[in-house]
Amino acid sequence: MELIDEKLMRAAIKEAEKARDSHEVPIGAVIVLDGEIIAAAHNLRETEQNATAHAEILAIEEACKRLGTWRLENAELYVTLEPCPMCSGAIILSRIKKVVYGAADPKAGCAGTLMNLLQDSRFNHQSEVVEGVLKDECGALLSRFFRELREKKKMEKQNNQ
């Protein structure tokens, strides 16, 4: 694993922590072009009550606006959780060159876990995929969030009895 990948994944983790602090599922993403972060985002699904407000989608939107184009051909995406089908589709359509993710997603991962949409030769674009960068840190963020959420719901249930 390259040190640059770790450095950029740490930037994505900082975004995930922003999501956690806003009571969102802690997933963060950054988009990099020529070694510079050009977009950063975190999940806002609950805040915006929008099913498409995933970190990757929001980062892609920001990068496209910043560059003035929908083609992100030389860009790299760093994300704390393996992209879902929707985000994988957006990655393919925006032509992102490389995707680096932290934790695998056994329920919705489409960069190699359930399926690999990002490298399916039937599409007109494929992305390089690097998996498992700082996976323990990325996974711990998610595990802690969901454990705390379950404990909170359990306490609420007990208080309502």
Automatic annotation (TrEMBL):
Catalytic activity: adenosine(34) in tRNA + H2O + H(+) = inosine(34) in tRNA + NH4(+)
PROSITE patterns: CYT_DCMP_DEAMINASES_1, CYT_DCMP_DEAMINASES_2
Annotated ranges, domain CMP/dCMP-type deaminase: 3-128
Cofactors, names only: Zn(2+)
Keyword terms: Hydrolase, Metal-binding, tRNA processing, Zinc
EC number(s) per entry: 3.5.4.33
InterPro entries on file: APOBEC/CMP_deaminase_Zn-bd, CMP_dCMP_dom, Cytidine_deaminase-like, MafB19-deam, tRNA_aden_deaminase
An example molecular function term from Gene Ontology annotations: zinc ion binding
SUPFAM superfamilies tied to this protein: Cytidine deaminase-like (SSF53927)
Keyword field contains Metal-binding: yes
Pfam families linked: MafB19-deam
Keyword Nucleotide-binding: no
Binding site residues for Zn(2+): H54, C84, C87
Cofactor, free-text remark: Binds 1 zinc ion per subunit.
Active site: E56 (proton donor)
GO biological process: tRNA wobble adenosine to inosine editing
Top EC group: hydrolase
The protein's role, per its UniProt record: Catalyzes the deamination of adenosine to inosine at the wobble position 34 of tRNA(Arg2).
Recorded family membership: Belongs to the cytidine and deoxycytidylate deaminase family. ADAT2 subfamily.
Assembly information from the UniProt record: Homodimer.
Protein name from the UniProt record: tRNA-specific adenosine deaminase
Natural source organism: Lederbergia citrisecunda
Gene: tadA
